[in-house]
Design goal:
- The chain is of the alpha+beta class.
- The chain has one domain.
- 33% of the residues lie in helices and 17% in strands.
- It has eight helices and nine strands.
- The strands form four sheets. It has a three-stranded antiparallel sheet. The chain has a two-stranded antiparallel sheet with strand order 1-9.
- Strand 5 and strand 6 form a beta hairpin.
- Helix 5 packs parallel to helix 8.
- The radius of gyration is 18 Å and the shape is globular.
């Protein structure tokens, strides 16, 4: 492994689509809806701490409703991810898939001062991590930085949601913070979509 490349090739074992809980950002959800027309209330679910152990209890993406905490996730059933084609066993929204999916199973390496050093493969995941292919790290790093920016927006939206106090508040209400007006947004490039601060102002 060098700074410019990392050895990996996906052999479509489906581990990431069947055994991994995908936690998309609102930007991921917007992309999926814009590109596919899918209803986010059909492909999203909200899971509780007892359904996922890998996320810290103080993670800033926990939504709070009626004394309970929830995380937004892609819906899963006994066959895996909602978007896993049951016949082909391939992702049915591959070109629009969340950035988290695009980065799996890669792990960023940085110096203590934040200087990019490259990527390796996570050693604590169920992926077989076949190494008979080569990935360029430049595009991976661009995805990582984009996801990092989206996470900042996500945290702001969660803060807005968690400050809301109204009777009958449900975790599904979080979708309305960034999905309302989406029919118009489907025609816009991602750079022109409402940002978290704009959603914050709209929510009052």
């Amino acid at each position: 492994m060098g700074k410019d490349t990392v050895h990996f090739k996906c052999h479509h074992c489906n581990h990431c689509c069947t055994d991994v809980v995908c936690l998309p950002t609102p930007w991921d959800v917007i992309r999926i809806v814009r590109d596919t027309g899918a209803d986010p209330r059909e492909f999203l679910e909200f899971i509780t701490p007892d359904e996922i152990e890998e996320v810290a209890t103080n993670d800033p993406t926990w939504l709070r409703c009626s004394g309970q905490k929830y995380l937004m996730a892609l819906r899963r059933d006994e066959n895996g991810c909602h978007f896993l084609n049951k016949a082909t066993r391939y992702c049915s929204i591959y070109e629009s898939r969340p950035l988290l999916c695009r980065l799996y199973p890669f792990k960023l390496l940085e110096s203590r001062t934040g200087v990019f050093k490259g990527f390796v493969l996570h050693d604590k995941v169920g992926c077989p991590r076949h190494r008979d292919g080569v990935y360029q790290t430049g595009p991976l790093y661009q995805i990582y930085r984009e996801d990092d920016t989206h996470q900042d927006d996500y945290h702001q939206l969660v803060q807005v949601f968690n400050r809301q106090r109204h009777l009958g508040k449900k975790p599904e209400d979080f979708i309305s913070l960034f999905i309302e007006g989406l029919p118009m947004a489907k025609t816009l490039p991602e750079s022109e979509l409402p940002s978290a601060p704009e959603a914050k102002r709209a929510a009052g």
